[in-house]
Specification:
Length: 308
């Protein structure tokens, strides 16, 4: 963030309080400009570049500057740049017009510096998050990278941590889907990108979201990939093992078809139903017996059918 302070002069009695607040409490070194009667055009235009580069501004003793054309000019620049501005306007009977930026008013007026700083302090983390998001979007734009879920998915598939985090900082939702309807957590699972799967889940991704292409949840994608570690991870995170895919396939049927005995055992140990039937009317136990899958018949025997 680039913070700016506008004051009538260097000796303003509130200046030190604001400097200490920004520098000591929030580790921000602000740029300061002074607007007074008689300011030279050269000084004004030298200050202008700092105004245009600022993201947030605190104005002190606005009442003492409000009649100056140079001050009005700076207010116009702040408005045009959409700079969030906090105005100390304590003149008797004074009034400061607020400019509506859509989501928030650009200008916020306060009768005391103490209340102004308290207000800024309460919203500081939001300001920082919004600025980080804006900078991340600018960086993506500068790099020529579209801010789309499909593009984000390609970086997940490449296990590209730097660019994935850039998308996340820019505001990409972890529960977004690709244009084909595949949840991002499924994208990472299908690429065996365990770190990215865990990163998405830790940031709120829904592990039971269902893809529109295969009709699988993330844990089913892990089983399909024969990825024992990710299957176990999703189970530990509470994945639904009773889920049936859109083509009528229970997770144990998928696991038996893949022939991974270790994953089949893991699913059985965690309550997956060996007798849940697929769209063909067959269960995982039935397929194991039908195709005499090595070791699976014996494994299913440890989990006898429940009495009806």
């Amino acid at each position: 963030m680039n913070w700016l302070i506008i004051a009538p002069d260097l000796k303003n009695k509130y200046l030190k309080d604001v400097e200490n607040f920004l520098e000591n409490k929030h580790n921000i070194v602000p740029y300061e400009i002074y607007i007074y009667n008689g300011i030279s055009q050269a000084e004004l235009f030298d200050d202008l570049k700092h105004v245009t580069q600022s993201t947030h501004c605190i104005i002190l003793d606005a009442a003492s500057m409000s009649s100056l054309d140079e001050y009005k000019f700076m207010i116009g620049v702040l408005t045009g740049k959409g700079v969030q501005t906090f105005v100390h306007f304590s003149g008797k009977g004074s009034r400061f017009e607020l400019v509506d930026s859509g989501r928030y008013s650009l200008f916020h007026s306060y009768a005391s510096v103490e209340v102004l700083l308290s207000s800024v302090d309460s919203e500081f983390e939001r300001f920082k998050a919004e600025d980080n998001q804006k900078q991340a979007l600018i960086q993506l734009f500068t790099m020529g990278i579209p801010f789309t879920s499909d593009c984000f998915a390609t970086f997940l598939e490449k296990d590209d941590t730097e660019n994935c985090e850039l998308f996340f900082d820019a505001g990409m939702q972890v529960n977004a889907r690709t244009s084909e309807g595949v949840p991002l957590v499924c994208v990472a699972t299908r690429s065996d990108c365990s770190d990215k799967v865990k990163w998405l889940v830790e940031n709120g991704a829904d592990i039971n979201a269902v893809s529109k292409d295969r009709g699988y949840s993330a844990v089913m994608d892990a089983v399909w990939r024969k990825n024992f570690d990710l299957t176990k991870y999703f189970i530990e995170k509470g994945a639904d093992l009773s889920f049936v895919s859109s083509d009528g396939q229970p997770i144990l049927v998928l696991a038996v078809g893949n022939g991974n005995l270790q994953i089949v055992e893991l699913l059985l140990e965690n309550g997956a139903d060996p007798d849940l039937k697929d769209s063909m009317g067959m269960s995982a136990r039935g397929y194991a017996n039908l195709f005499k899958k090595p070791g699976m018949v014996e494994l299913f025997a440890k989990y006898p059918p429940k009495e009806v």
